[in-house]
Amino acid sequence: MAKRDAIVEYLNKYLESDKIKDGSRNGLQVEGKEEVKKIVLGVSASAELFRLAAGEAADMVIVHHGMIWDNPNRITGTFYKRVKLLLDNDISLAAWHLPLDMHPVDGHNARLIRFFGATGITSFCDYHGQLIGFKGTLKKPVTLHEACDILGDNIGGEPVAFGFGPKMIRTIGVVSGGSSGMVLSGECDGLDLYIAGDCAEPVQEYCREAGLNFISGGHYNTEKPGILALKDLLAKKFGVRTVFIDVPNRF
To answer: How far apart are CA 24 and CA 116, in angstroms?
Structure first.
């Protein structure tokens, strides 16, 4: 058993939330019981996730995409139903958005690039003045097909790929989530492969023109790795039961 506030304080410090500009209200978003025996972790806040968490007798839910952003919703309609599910079951909700994208050890992007065994890893891709992704060099070059297999084996789903770059991939960059638009900034030029979450319409032709290989792993799937890392981290740190609940989303 652990204290709710101790868990939130620890993750705020570990993920350095106070140093990161974000549209998400990172940290505790809905207050439930003080004592935590079981934490359910998921990618995105939803009524379905909360129903499943209640079925698991969870005391806390931790997600990447929370419910409260810069302009919070009125507590009506579907938003009210989500809040009610949490309050009726005395479940706390906490969320960490950009801090979990950017973390150099347990963030989505740090985990994603390490699936490929990259070396010389450095931060890249500017998002509102903050570098949120990572790039590096592969120890052993791979084909685009092999890169898709590595990604799919680690995060699930069926990646979408454009093969307009070198046949053998040596340098890669990774930014999870809604990140395909980063291609259009030119920051990915010079890489052999860029891995994003989503896939915006202009990306295909830009990659053709820039001679860049591209993989879309899915917004949801590319943002599972950091959540899974927190699952293991919190179980070890606080001795609580932790469960990842997958609410599959192909996008």
So the answer is: 29
| Pairing state between β 92-95 and 27-30 | antiparallel
Question: What is the spatial distance between Cα 108 and Cα 4, in angstroms, rounded to a whole number?
Answer: 24
Domains in the chain, CATH or no CATH each: 2-100 (3.40.1390.30), 103-220 (3.40.1390.30)
Rounded to two decimals, the pTM is 0.96
> Using one digit for the tens of pLDDT, what is the confidence trace for 66-112?
999 998 789 999 999 999 999 999 999 999 999 999 999 999 999 99
Instruction: State the DSSP H helix or E strand holding residue 190, giving kind and residue range, or none if neither.
Output: none
- In order of 47, 91, 110, 150, 182, the CA distances from 133 in angstroms are 30, 32, 8, 18, 10
The token duo for 23 is: 């549209």
In which element (H, E) is residue 60 found?
Answer: strand 60-65
